[in-house]
Amino acid sequence: MDFLILIGAGALAYSIVIVGTAYLVLKDLKL
């Protein structure tokens, strides 16, 4: 159970980082 929770939390954090990076890149390209 705990292992699955850790994997889920890690995947969620990874997704947030990817989305945040993509957002900054697109924002940078518009400027």
Compact overview of the structure:
By secondary structure, the chain is mainly α.
Overview of this structure, please?
The model has no long low-confidence stretch (mean pLDDT 93). The chain has one helix spanning 2-30. The chain is mainly alpha-helical and 31 residues long. The chain crosses the membrane at residues 6-26. Keywords: Membrane, Transmembrane, Transmembrane helix.
Topology, element by element:
Layout (H helix, E strand, L loop, with lengths): L1 H29 L1
Mean pLDDT: 93
Q: N-to-C SSE series?
A: H
Number-wise, the strands total: 0
What structural category do the secondary elements indicate?
mainly alpha
Helix proportion range: over 70%
- Low-confidence stretches at least 5 residues in length (pLDDT < 50)? none
Core attributes:
membrane, transmembrane helix, 31 residues, mainly alpha, transmembrane
